[in-house]
Write a structure and sequence with these properties.
This protein is an alpha/beta fold and 253 residues long. It has one domain: P-loop containing nucleotide triphosphate hydrolases (Rossmann fold, 3-Layer(aba) Sandwich). The chain is built from eight helices and ten strands. It has a six-stranded mixed β-sheet, with helices on both faces. Helix 6 packs parallel to helix 7. The longest helix has 16 residues. Bound molecules: adenosine-5'-diphosphate and magnesium ion. Magnesium ion (MG) binds next to helix 2.
Length: 253
Amino acid sequence: MNLTGTETQPTQQASEARASNAVIDLDSVTRRYAAGRRVITALDNVSLRIDAGDFVAIVGASGSGKSTLLNIVSGIDAADAGRVRVLGTDLNDMSEDRLATWRGRNVGIVFQFFQLMPTLTVRENVVLPMDLAGLTEGKWARADRLLASVEIPHLGNNLPSELSGGEQQRAAIARALANDPALLIADEPTGNLDTVNGLLVMEIIERLWRNGTTVLMVTHDVQLSLRARRRITMRDGRIIEDFTNPKLDEHAR
Ligand code: ADP
Ligand code: MG
């Protein structure tokens, strides 16, 4: 080993070049919560890189830190230590206002319990992120195209409460895609759906991935996790396994 200055230079450049293709780049991220007099380490020194165009499933027992990880990637939550870089943006020192704007334009988020606005119609729910981001040109036509793409073109004028769970999740996916995000984050998107509707939602997510969206999805469903290209297993706030599915590897880019 002879690491002279002239030899380390290209290595450093190469690692920077690689880093530029990373959609998600976490470096030694820790997140702790106070629970009474105890401290819970929800994320324990996690480093993780996810490349553009990948489809990553995160699995692990309840309480292992999966949602905390997603919330830190989307800027909903902040790390106590470590560096968080997503889509080339350093999230560490951004104000909540700037984070919200950044998130609205760059990240689509799908939740287990849909979280549609109950007093807005489905179409209005899909248009809302466009309004918040100021991307309003042709917004109604775009909402209708998105609702058609998730196969509920006829439900735009209904309230969320008039839809089945599977239909609500498809509406929530349409909303997540409102501003054409480079990154889709889904936290147990099928967790509240029956098998048939879960598979339908999974097929929509897979289609988005094949069309170029980077997908990061938490699931407790082993069968569904096997459909991702890469599967990361968490335990006690750490990554304990990182598996790339060789059968799906060719779709990575
Ligand atoms: P998972 O999504 O894998 O079930 P979480 O990321 O939600 O796990 O939680 C990881 C750990 O952090 C758990 O012990 C949980 O109780 C704790 N935790 C998560 N959010 C909070 C919070 N807002 N306040 C206190 N503890 C929290
Ligand atoms: Mg969770």
